[in-house]
Amino acid sequence: MTTTRFAPSPTGHIHVGNLRTALMNYLIARKSGGTFILRIDDTDPERSKQEYVDAIQEDLEWLGLTWDRMERQSTRLERYEDAAQQLRDMGRFYECFETPTELDLKRKKQLNMGKPPVYDRAALALSDDDKAALRAERGTGHWRFKLDHARIEWTDGILGDRSIDAASVSDPVLIRADGQFLYTLASVCDDIDFGITDVVRGSDHVTNTATQIQIIEALGGGVPNFAHHSLLTGPQGEALSKRLGTLALRDLREAGVEPMALLSLMARLGSSDPVELRSSIEEIAEGFDVNKFGAAPTKFDEQDLYPLTGKVLHEKPLSEMADDIAAAGVPADLAERFWNVTRENITTRKDLAPWWDLFANGAEPAIDEEDQDFIKEAMTLLPEGPFDDSTWGTWTAAVKEATGRKGRGLFMPLRKALTGQSHGPDMSAVMPLLQVIKARG
Fold it and tell me: Which residue among 285, 300, 378, 406 is least enclosed by CB atoms within 10 Å?
């Protein structure tokens, strides 16, 4: 059975980059009838916050990305310690004492010599007495996994065949000097214990994957299928990383983006399939194939979400919009007429209130200089309300007869005078909703 996971750190809000990873793993699990696990990577006690755990769940629930079970790394520290001891016993885990400054100097020296900045394994030459002296001087050291210097190979679901020479990579630090388990060891233990079969994540994790494969094998686990999706850029190809804080899911939700618009875009963005609005998460899962995604950086434009959001709303029946329409101030007896008039003229739910304000309180007339006299005469021919579906046709016919105007020269100035806009719903349908007409003067 396919088992996938989404493993956010509760140190901030989920953004569109995180969503891409979550959605791909979710769709793989759902398409195969497998299991989707929400795993909270909260081994950092200083930065991990419960408020972010709550926010992660809220954002996923808003999108309909339901998980089959939830796990927290902070409850599994004993398991990670057992795994660390297992690696020590195998001779694959060693304690190091260099300070960050010392490590930085080593890296700079290697770069100046034209060598890759790989940890030199100096700690392996320390005797027990050396280690004891360093502990007395500096405290407990950090622990590195000793890589087997061979080629690490796997077939990536997106990138294809991958091969990394382990000798070109530093032995990864798995436990910090303060005893905190880092992502790599905790993630490997969880993936083994939870039976993770497929891992989809960003291409910035490719080197991590290589080292994790060796750690998984050292601990006797089965290596999952890995796929690394491309990273998102801005619409002009610019780095998106600095803007991800403004592209949090809760900010998009606040801006009025609809869940299916966001999911439909993110499920196809960067793939060989065109973006198409879907009506359900099940429909999205049915057509999803991770192998159709490419390795090239993927352009993301937030503005693409709004036409899709408009399409989502245009298809909604009154029953699904009734609360929003009521919140905009529309009387219940006018709700159906109001929705029929505005549904194809809104982009987000937030657009409902301005439309009702226009109908209920009137709009500031937009009258061109050359149309001033024409509008004054036309207003004298407008009957008193309430208006009905025939008012617009009857009135424009009378204005045409009186002024000789016709076509766009007749209809556009009248629309702008009544609504303040040069576009919008059919005026025959608008007239019965107009409570106030400011153009009357």
Answer: 406
